[in-house]
Design goal:
Order of helices and strands: EEEEEHHEHHH
Structural class: alpha+beta
Helix content: 40-55%
Radius of gyration: 21 Å
Shape: elongated
Strand content: 15-25%
Number of helices: 5
Length: 149
Amino acid sequence: MKCPFCNQENTRVIDSRPVPDNNSIRRRRQCDECHKRFSTYEKIETIPLTVIKKDQSRETYDRTKIQDGIMRACYKRPISVEQIERTIDEIETEIFNKEEREIPSTEIGEIVMNRLKELDAVTYVRFASVYREFKDVNTFMDELKKMLK
């Protein structure tokens, strides 16, 4: 690892600790030449994941799509950014623990809905109404009745 200050290649790891997301390690390093300290992060390289969409087209997995959908569903709800990030991390962990190279978008949607059901009922209903493409009030009410049981 090169020192960001003097570009020297000789650096030592002083301290290592896991980052709260459990998917990376923070390393504190010191340059042998200029003696300045800096941090680096090691992240686990995951298998590239392809999402099979409803129309059978394929695209590369993109965390921001899940994040955008959840953020829209959480709009004006008493849910912190930390809770949202933790939920997205849990969803991603569940997806990648399947160790598949391809996953249907419907499966991702169901995982997201299950996590949102635990997080906040209103957020769950908002997400489900878009994801399940409710056509009318009766379909919406059926989903609410399932949730209330």
